[in-house]
């Protein structure tokens, strides 16, 4: 009898009071990991499969990832074809938890790849207005997976979205005085299409929107000619790709090496871009310095 009444009392305690354990969330890569931590703070425990400086296009999941995913209550992935390896992993883990596709509400850009194929550009997070859509999608997923803290997640998402809006305004103000004819940048792969469309910067690259295939000699030769013809000033290394391509383009064209920007991954905590907002600020500071 005493046992039954205890159980009855236990049943009436709100879920949050019982479940002090943070919600386990797996994200596909480090940028989504940061967005999730910004919203979930102490209520979530976030593990990113592809960590800082990693390449989410070509990741090869390890047995450890399978175990991590099996213990998670929520999976956050980008979508738009970024994580071609994800379905194999969720299938192998028989993952039945909730899945947030962060880019779900983004209006996707398509690009014509070398060879003529039309591909969807997955790098939507580089436009901060899309970053806000990501934040809203993630907050919705957290709220569904952990209803006791739903109001906290939505409130944190609103506050964080306001900081993204402020960053967007800062980027616009920083790049606005630069003449349009100077707003050209070379990167290793086409990771900045959304950023370029938002702020009127033309990004050229040898490699296309995925790092899966090496650029052809013909594509590289065409890019070298274009850099010389348009007098593009700077070539940038991306943190998650080999610096060889950028270094070769600098040698061939006489453009300057603009530094390392963060496209598909954050830096480690002690680097210049350990968060999404740090990444946007760092990249913009380097791009602006090279284009002025
Ligand atoms: Zn990429």
Describe this structure in words.
The protein is of the alpha/beta class and 292 residues long. The protein folds into 2 domains: 20-169, Rossmann fold (3-Layer(aba) Sandwich); 174-291, 3-Layer(aba) Sandwich (Rossmann fold), CATH 3.40.50.1980. The protein is 45% helix and 16% strand. It has helices at 2-12, 15-18, 30-40, 63-70, 86-93, 128-145, 150-175, 193-199, 217-229, 244-253, 276-291; strands at 23-29, 44-50, 74-77, 98-101, 110-112, 118-120, 184-187, 202-205, 234-238, 256-261. Helix 6 packs antiparallel against helix 7 and helix 7 (150-175) runs parallel beside helix 11 (276-291). The protein is globular. The structure holds zinc ion (ZN). Zinc ion (ZN) binds at residues 57, 123, 189, 191, 263-264.
Structural descriptors:
45% helix; Rossmann fold; single chain; binds zinc ion; disordered N terminus; 10 strands; 292 residues; 2 domains; alpha/beta
Concise account of the structure shown:
The protein is 45% helix and 16% strand. It has helices at 2-12, 15-18, 30-40, 63-70, 86-93, 128-145, 150-175, 193-199, 217-229, 244-253, 276-291; strands at 23-29, 44-50, 74-77, 98-101, 110-112, 118-120, 184-187, 202-205, 234-238, 256-261. The strands form 3 sheets. The protein has a 4-stranded parallel β-sheet, sandwiched between helices. The chain has a 4-stranded parallel β-sheet with strand order 8-7-9-10, with helices on both faces.
């Amino acid at each position: 009898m005493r046992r039954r009444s205890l159980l009855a009392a236990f049943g009436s305690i709100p879920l949050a009071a019982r479940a002090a354990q943070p919600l386990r969330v797996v994200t596909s890569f480090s940028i989504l990991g940061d967005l999730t931590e910004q919203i979930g703070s102490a209520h979530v425990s976030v593990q990113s499969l592809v960590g800082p400086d990693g390449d989410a296009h070509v990741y090869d999941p390890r047995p450890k990832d399978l175990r991590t995913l099996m213990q998670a209550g929520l999976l956050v992935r980008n979508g738009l074809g970024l994580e071609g390896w994800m379905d194999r992993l969720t299938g192998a883990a028989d993952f039945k938890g909730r899945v947030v596709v962060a880019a779900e509400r983004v209006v996707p850009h398509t690009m014509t790849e070398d060879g003529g194929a039309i591909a969807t550009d997955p790098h939507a997070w580089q436009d901060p207005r899309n970053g806000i859509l990501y934040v809203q999608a993630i907050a919705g997923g957290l709220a569904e997976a952990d209803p006791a803290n739903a109001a906290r997640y939505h409130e944190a998402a609103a506050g964080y979205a306001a900081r993204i809006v402020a960053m967007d305004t800062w980027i616009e103000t920083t790049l606005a005085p630069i003449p349009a004819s100077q707003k050209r940048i070379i990167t290793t792969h086409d990771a900045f299409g959304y950023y370029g469309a938002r702020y009127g910067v033309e990004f050229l690259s040898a490699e296309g929107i995925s790092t899966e295939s090496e650029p052809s000699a013909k594509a590289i030769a065409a890019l070298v000619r274009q850099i010389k013809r348009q007098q593009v000033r700077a070539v940038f290394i991306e943190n998650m790709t080999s610096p060889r391509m950028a270094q070769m383009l600098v040698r061939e064209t006489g453009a300057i090496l603009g530094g390392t920007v963060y496209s598909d991954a954050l830096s480690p905590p002690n680097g210049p871009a350990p968060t999404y907002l740090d990444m946007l600020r760092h990249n913009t500071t380097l791009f602006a310095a090279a284009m002025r």
